[in-house]
């Protein structure tokens, strides 16, 4: 959520949403924001930096993660799947969540 607020170029009246869903011991999280015309989500290269490590943390905690660009003016989503129950070996990534 912080990355969406800080880096998406959102304005005061723009919508940022979060969807949470659990299935078979895996928590799926998707954050939707307006997207940015000048940058895309990226994992910070310096793990010791004082800030900018949000996606690095998401990558390390997740079994899978990624981004979806919804087209010009339609925003972007960053999603991840986090194992919350033992014994889950692989993740079937769901279709984009819309709401």
Structure description:
- With 99 residues, the protein is α+β, with helices and mostly antiparallel strands.
- The protein has one domain.
- The chain is built from two helices and four strands.
- It has a four-stranded antiparallel sheet, covered by helices on one side.
- A hairpin with a 6-residue loop joins β3 and β4 (76-83).
- The chain is globular, with a radius of gyration of 14 Å.
- The two termini are 17 Å apart.
- The model has no long low-confidence stretch (mean pLDDT 83).
Class by SSE composition: alpha+beta
Broad shape: globular
Distance N to C terminus: 17 Å
- Tell me, rounded to a whole number, the average pLDDT: 83
Radius of gyration: 14 Å
SS summary, helix count: 2
Q: Can you list the strand order of the major beta sheet? A: 1-2-4-3
Strand content: 25-35%
Proportion of residues in helical segments: 10-25%
Q: How many domains comprise the coordinates? A: 1
Most strands sheet: 4 strands, antiparallel
Succession of helices and strands? HEEHEE
This entry's quaternary arrangement is single chain
Number of strands: 4
Q: Unreliable segments (pLDDT under 50, ≥5 consecutive)?
A: none
Please sum up the structure shown:
By secondary structure, this protein is α+β, with helices and mostly antiparallel strands.
Topology readout:
Blueprint: H1 2-7, E1 17-23, E2 26-33, H2 54-61, E3 64-69, E4 76-83
Antiparallel strand pairs: 1-2, 2-4, 3-4
Summarize this structure as a short list of keywords or feature phrases.
four-stranded antiparallel β-sheet; 2 helices; 4 strands; alpha+beta; 99 residues; globular
């Amino acid at each position: 959520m912080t990355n969406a607020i800080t880096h998406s170029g959102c304005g005061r009246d723009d919508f940022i949403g979060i969807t949470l869903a659990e299935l078979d011991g895996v928590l799926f999280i998707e954050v939707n924001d307006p997207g940015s015309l000048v940058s895309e989500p990226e994992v910070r290269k310096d793990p010791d930096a004082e800030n900018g490590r949000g996606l690095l943390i998401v990558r390390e905690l997740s079994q899978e993660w990624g981004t979806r660009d919804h087209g010009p003016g339609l925003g972007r989503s960053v999603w991840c799947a986090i194992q919350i129950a033992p014994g889950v070996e692989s993740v079937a990534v769901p279709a984009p969540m819309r709401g």
